[in-house]
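Hey, can you fold this one?
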Amino acid sequence: MTGFAEFTLTSWVTSLLLLWSIFLLDLWFGDPVYRFHPIRLIGSLLGYLERWLFARGWNGYKGGILLGLLLLGIVLGCYFILQKLFGSLHSVLSWSLDVFLGYSLLALRDLEIHGLRVWQATADGNLMKAREEVSQLVGRDVELLDLAGCNRATLESLSENLSDGVVSPLVWLTLGGIPGMLAFKVISTMDSMVGYRNERYLHFGWFGARVDDLMNWMPARLAWLLLSISAWILPGYDARMAWLIGLSQHQDMPGPNAGWGQAASAGALRVRLVGKKWKNGRLQHNAWLGHPDDSTEVSANFIPRIICLNRYATLLLLVILSLLIAIFN
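Sure. Predicted structure:
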């Protein structure tokens, strides 16, 4: 018997099908919202392990490393058990599990939806609604943002998260399959939950933050290249400034990776981004990205433009990854 019953496509074809199925499902349906979403489960497990480790005095560097090892071991262990179980029933089921998990771990459409909600609010002049929607994208204080500030914050979040939420997951999917993608999301969740430089997490969160920096190092720079090339292909963007601003100003942002996408987007759109950022009532950042002659008064119309640029950069990445899969598998 052939066809569905055997499902014996070559490895590179199944890898391509997996890659594009994940992207298309995310594009069509967005991030699924339900109680047992993989990221929610990882976050809940992290919270439990954090409390368990702190209760036993493991609240320093060693505790943070142990947290990472336990999280990775449990999450990947559960994945391999499910794969074994589904595979024993039918190979199509194990492949479908991979598609569903990968789709759940990609965030392109979710970012676009959040960005469009801010766009609608600021286009309507509804400052309160705009601040409410921006608060879903950023962790800073939004009470002082005007409409232009809400638009800037949205551009900053969409450009930074192109790397964290799209490029990195797809790169690690290509390098390590679903286990690689899961491992990245575990580390990324650690960074977002405990990777803070405060009294509680300064040492405990060090491991997650540093490994997250390492896993995002190449994808962040790849995002800069993809944005620059996309700005060159698409009309109405400045590819030269995307390249130059990304190269020269990325270091103005804290951390080794966050500035690449933001600076490239500022150059491509010919706007100035970031400026003063307040968090918990404290001035956290006070530097502008972009050419000094460009405006800080960012209109709502720039949000659909960054969405278009991000989507084109993602398509370009998918083509590159597809070629690599076909060549090296």
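Residues 1-9 have pLDDT under 50 and may be disordered. Let me know if you want another pass with a different chain boundary.
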